[in-house]
Design brief:
By secondary structure, the protein is of the alpha+beta class. It has 26 helices and 9 strands. Among the domains are: 139 residues, Endopeptidase. Chain P, domain 1 (Glutathione S-transferase Yfyf (Class Pi), Chain A, domain 2), CATH 1.20.1050.40; 65 residues, no CATH class. Helix content is 56%, strand content 7%.
């Protein structure tokens, strides 16, 4: 008797609890075969109408994604040796096939014939947009290449996919490889009882007594922000900032050669397609016209922010000398000093704040905010098959009570789970004949887990992160576009995709919202008005240093890709040094290997695109200021949902913004929000 493969099941949600590593490769092989057959059917038919060409391709893509999405997600949140091996094998198959499919000239020609029809202009704008983006996709996949160049481009695509996966795995393995076992509680002086309970739980995981400091996010933050032992802070800082590098204690995960190979192959691929460099290649699908425009944007921000950052650093050094006995502030001191300054100068104690944000209350308040803004309700559905007992699933209900979408929440840091926070697509919205497939998203964070019978306590930064990721989620879930290629986040210019997420962040600084979702873990009392006032007053505390750090990362990313020279190699250290001399006011130690853990650009989608965070922040700050001032007829949230969230990539992002705001974006709101306005 043959057991059905759960990855191939035609059901609305994946049956995560029964998916095994052994299911992965057979399912992907079958899904690829089905997709190839569907494309062959499209090209063999000779038809050139929208349904026969685009809708049929959307259907094939949807079914392929339905198999691959759970596999990719599990590799990020439930890593095991068996799954890693299966994922790597399946990813090689997928990458090779998708590269091949992107160069399918018969399929390209079918789309081109549709675009050339005399009645093409009569199609709805969203349909024409889907056709235009499909043709662009073929171009960027190398459909026009011939002979050796064609094959080489395919080979590069497969190699880059493998290298990116291995880069991310190395960071994950390096994160888990380092730890420091603590048996003397005095070493943890300054660390809160809640954080010590988390470190104790990490020790128990390993069968140890006492406490275990790891490189998981809750542990790193607890030590760098609160531990009084300077040597301990230095050890954790060094371990974290040399992960997966030649400077780590364990060099078996060193990403140096992978970075060199990734950069060389990206440059070669770009040149095969006729681009000068991989930055130009990347910017082809973004709002910014070219790398020079993006760099000029960053340089202007740096010019405004650097004097502010220099003043903030001087203040921190003076405070550290006077109040903490630190005459020489080093990088591993900065967060500790900043927290002391918040407490002393602004009356903001992050540990005291955490007590007001038990995660269950925060989630309930987030649900209330989303309902208030967008008239949809998030309702927990019990009994959904998940990959871990902590995972929650919410149905999204419209005003009439109908389910219109869903989202998985996986919130806590643990072994086998990639660090950071992200949103991803589980299922896209797709109207196929009389069947409507509902959009489903994943929302993943690495918050501190509950300790014993005490709930997880969120920092204010955690609240900001949750709202940020929910912005992405809502972009996906509230789409009204029925074609997966241009619905939700799909097809949206990368430097605009952060607009909804950063728009939502602002509500973490809204009095009614933040106080409304608070409730002290012991008394249930809401956050006192005075504490909120102090928090809000400190919003721009060290804002100059914070934005300079983002500018540094973004400028490094663009220059690394724009100025790559095959004769010289990646030159990571020299490019970073060049950028830091121009931008940074804090110089890290020579052994710092930040780039070796920079998964956004080496294992994610942000290559020559990390500037997108600040570019989109310009859009979001402007949009939120318009919203907050009530300058949108008919309700700002309603307009934001209609023109930004619902529209997806059915129009260019610039048109979406103009439809919402009635004008193009302006930088002034960003400067005011960041404390950089003249």
């Amino acid at each position: 008797m043959t057991t059905a493969n759960p990855l191939l099941a035609d059901q609305d949600l994946p049956d995560f609890a029964v998916i095994k590593a052994a299911h992965v490769v057979p399912a992907v092989e079958e899904a690829i075969a089905a997709h190839r057959a569907a494309v062959e059917s499209i090209t063999a038919s000779g038809k050139d109408d929208f349904d026969a060409v685009i809708l049929a391709a959307e259907r094939a893509d949807f079914l392929l994604s339905r198999v691959w999405s759970p596999v990719g997600h599990l590799a990020s949140v439930a890593d095991t040796p068996e799954l890693r091996e299966a994922h790597a094998a399946a990813q090689a198959l997928m990458t090779a096939y998708l590269m091949e499919a992107g160069q399918n000239r018969a399929h390209h020609d079918a789309v081109a014939r549709l675009a050339a029809r005399s009645d093409f202009a009569a199609l709805p704008p969203a349909a024409r947009r889907a056709v235009d983006l499909a043709l662009r996709g073929f171009h960027l996949a190398g459909v026009a290449l011939e002979g050796e160049a064609r094959q080489r481009f395919l080979d590069i695509g497969v190699a880059l996919s493998d290298l990116s996966t291995k880069f991310g795995n190395a960071v994950l393995d390096a994160t888990e490889a380092w730890s420091e076992h603590v048996t003397d509680e005095a070493l943890l002086d300054g660390v809160s009882d809640g954080d010590k309970a988390i470190l104790a739980a990490y020790a128990q995981e390993k069968g140890l007594s006492g406490w275990l400091i790891t490189l998981r996010q809750p542990s790193v933050l607890a030590i760098l922000y609160h531990a009084k032992d300077r040597a301990l802070r230095e050890r954790v800082y060094r371990a974290y900032n040399t992960r997966a590098s030649d400077q780590a204690e364990d060099r078996s995960h060193d990403n140096s050669e992978r970075i060199d190979a990734i950069m060389a192959l990206r440059h070669e691929a770009a040149q095969i397609l006729g681009f000068a460099d991989s930055a130009t290649h990347s910017l082809e699908t973004k709002m910014a016209a070219d790398a020079d425009e993006a760099l000029a944007f960053l340089a202007d921000l740096a010019r405004r922010a650097r004097p502010v950052g220099e003043g903030e650093l001087a203040e921190a050094r003076a405070f550290a000398a006077e109040h903490l006995g630190l005459d020489d502030v080093r990088p591993w001191d900065l967060s500790y000093v900043a927290e002391a300054m918040r407490r002393t100068l602004h009356g903001v104690d992050q540990e005291a704040l955490k007590a007001y944000f038990p995660l269950p209350r925060v989630l309930a308040g987030t649900q209330a905010l989303i309902e208030r803004l967008f008239d949809v309700r998030l309702v927990v559905r019990e009994g959904v098959s998940t990959w871990h007992p902590d995972v929650l699933f919410y149905d999204v209900l419209d005003a009439g009570g109908a389910v219109v979408a869903g989202v998985y929440l996986d919130l806590f840091a643990r072994a086998g789970k990639r660090g950071g926070a992200w949103m991803d697509v589980c299922r896209s919205r797709f109207r196929d004949a009389d069947r409507l497939h509902l959009p489903i998203a994943y929302l993943t964070t690495n918050f501190a887990p509950p300790a014993g019978d005490r709930p997880s306590l969120a920092t204010h930064n955690d609240v900001v992160t949750l709202f940020h990721e929910f912005g992405h989620v809502l972009h996906h879930l509230l789409t009204e576009v029925d074609l997966p290629s241009i619905g939700g986040i799909s097809g949206v210019e990368w430097d605009a995709v952060e607009l909804p997420s950063q728009f939502m962040e602002n509500f973490a600084w809204d009095r009614d919202t933040l106080i409304g979702l608070s409730g002290h873990v012991e008394s249930g009392e809401p956050l006192p008005e005075a504490m909120f006032d102090r928090l809000l007053a400190a919003r721009q505390f060290q804002a100059g240093l914070a934005i300079l750090r983002q500018i540094e990362f973004a400028t490094f990313d663009l220059l690394l890709h724009r100025d790559y020279d095959p004769a010289l190699g990646a030159r990571v250290d020299s490019v970073l040094e060049q950028v830091r001399e121009a931008v940074a006011v804090i110089q890290p130690p020579a052994w710092n290997r930040f780039a070796h853990g920079f998964s956004h650009i080496f294992a994610g989608g942000y290559a020559a695109g990390y500037y997108s965070y600040l570019w989109a922040e310009l859009l979001s700050a402007d949009a939120f200021e318009i919203f907050a001032h009530g300058d949108i007829a008919g309700g700002g949230a309603t307009a934001f949902r209609r023109e930004i969230l619902a529209a997806g990539a059915s129009r260019p992002a610039a048109e979406n913004f103009r439809a919402f705001a009635g004008r193009g974006p302006e930088v002034d709101a960003l400067l005011r929000m960041r404390g950089l306005a003249a």
